Amino acid sequence: MQDFDKEYVKPTRADGAFSILQLTDTHLFADQNTGFLGVNTAQSLQAVIDAVLRQNRKFDLIITTGDIAQDYSEQSYVNFAKMMHASFSQPVFWLPGNHDDGPKMARVFPTVGISAAKNVIVGRWQFVLLNTQVYNAPFGWITPEELNYLRQCLDNHPELHTVVCLHHNAYRVNSAWLDQHELRNKEELLSLISGYPQVKLVLCGHVHQETDFVKDGVRFISSPSTSIQFEPLSFNFGLDCKGPGWRYLTFTPDGGISTDVYRLPFEMFRPDFAIGGY
Predict the structure, then answer these.
(1) Which of 44, 81, 114, 225 could lock 25 by a disulfide, CB 3.0 to 4.6 Å apart?
(2) Helical pair 186-194 and 144-156, crossing angle rounded to 10 deg
(3) What angle do CA 154, 206, 117 make, to 5 degrees?
(4) What's the pLDDT at 131?
(5) Considering only CA atoms, which of 117, 123, 197 is closest in space to residue 165?
(6) How far apart are CA 213 and CA 83, in angstroms?
């Protein structure tokens, strides 16, 4: 593990607790006037940012769980960085999704003030940001190198509660069309995690909907997109009648996790329901 992969963030609360803002699946384009399934994603992200600012809720860092871009463009990542820096002073961390260009992100983001760290340590917690991208494919796959990186982080810090962050869901969401695009070798990840009781949470994006459950002592959470939402429990592709969303998570030194999801009114960004897929 290289030193540049690791970053420390000091909790701002005296009791050692801290909060993060999770943003996911922004699906930005180089051209900020471009729409995605009928929604202007730059405008929906900005509306989410404005709502977060109005809430005036304290948080210590931002984690974006993939699909920052929709068109794989360098400019989309520059646009994202500009939007983050214009509104937030907290550090921003990221991982690639299936619509991203991971190597391009790693090259561009450090030049525009976005950290390249993949092991973020905050108080008594660590976040490990994994790459599950298969370039130009919707499903996910975690490589032996990524699994080994997670294992190293866990072995190096057995004293820290751990959040595993990735784009693809490592569990079924019971939407047939969406489950075929899950993390295909999820059993390898789950097998590794089962040997490390300090793993408390697996946090993902990708599914454009809320899930939150506990299995074998590990909590699994996905969050709404800042753009369009997918209809839950849908056999075929379907869009949901819910607005763009964001999630806060609060972590305590004893391993506790609490979380809240917020959404914009659906009427603000109504997708085109006539579109049968993308």
Answers:
(1) 225
(2) 20
(3) 40
(4) 98
(5) 117
(6) 32
pLDDT digits (tens, 9 = 90+) for 170-183: 999 999 999 999 99
92-120 pLDDT tens trace: 999 999 999 999 999 999 999 999 999 99
CB 138 within 8 A of CB 98: yes
Residue 1 has pLDDT above 70, yes or no: no
Cβ-defined contacts of 272-277 (< 8 Å, 24+): 272/37, 272/38, 273/239, 275/37, 275/38, 275/239, 276/237, 277/237
CB atoms within 10 A of CB 148: 12
Instruction: Give me the residues paired with residue 164 across strands.
Output: 128, 202
Give the Cα separation of 24 and 228 in Å (integer): 11
Q: Which of 192, 78, 178 is nearest to 130 (CA)?
A: 192
pLDDT of amino acid 35 = 86
Residue 78 half-sphere exposure, CB side, CA atoms within 13 Å? 7
Residues 6+ apart with CB under 8 A from 131: 95, 96, 102, 142, 143, 146, 166
Token duo for residue 107? 């090259």
**What tokens does 104 get?**
């391009």
Alpha-helical segments (H) within the chain: 41-55, 74-87, 102-108, 144-156, 176-179, 186-194
Give the three-class secondary structure for 123: coil
Whether the pTM exceeds 0.85: the reply is: yes
DSSP state of 12: S
Token couple for 26? 């922004």
The answer to whether 68 and 100 are in contact (CB under 8 A) is yes
Helix (H, G, I), strand (E, B) or coil at 21: strand
CB atoms within 10 A of CB 5: 16
